[in-house]
Amino acid sequence: MARPFCDVYISKSGEAAIRAGKAEYPIGTIVLKSKYPDEKRSKVELHTVMRKMPKGYWPNHGDWEFSVLDSDKKHVLARGRVESCANCHDAYAPTGYLTRTYLSNKASVER
Fold it and tell me: Which of 50, 56, 61, 99 has the least CB density, counted as fewest CB within 10 Å?
C-alpha cells in the first residue's frame, strides 16, 4: 500500500504545545487531517479530527475525541471514543498523543 499524503491543521490553541512537543494540549484544541491518495492532492479521501476534551473524558487515551468524516465532510463515519484511532495515537502518548511527523520548519499557522 502506498504511503498516504496528508495536510494537517491545528487550532491556534494547540500551536505552542505541538511546536514544543509537549504532552498537554489545552481543552478544545482541534486537529484536522485531510488524507489524499497521491502527492498531487487531487481529491481528499477522508478527513480525521481530534478534539481535546475535558479531563476524564477518556483518560487512557489522553482525553481526545476522534472523528472520521467522508471526503466531502458531509457524513460523520465515526465519532467519540474510536478505538482504531486511539490504538494508533497511543504510540505518541509522550507528546500528547500527537505525532510531530507532519510538522516542518516551514509550517505556517492560519490566523
Answer: 56
Buried b (16+ CB within 10 A) or exposed e, 10-30: bbeebeebbeeeeeebeeebb
Polymer length of the chain: 111
Task: Report angle CA 15, 18, 20 to the nearest 5 degrees.
Answer: 105
Tens of pLDDT, residues 62-93: 999 999 999 888 889 999 999 999 999 999 99
- pLDDT for residue 56: 97
For every residue of 1-65, DSSP letters joined together read -PPPEEEEEE-GGGHHHHHHT-S---TT-EEEEEEESSTT--S--EEEEEEEPPTTSSGGGTTEE
Give which of 46, 51, 63, 54 is closest to 10, Cα–Cα: 51
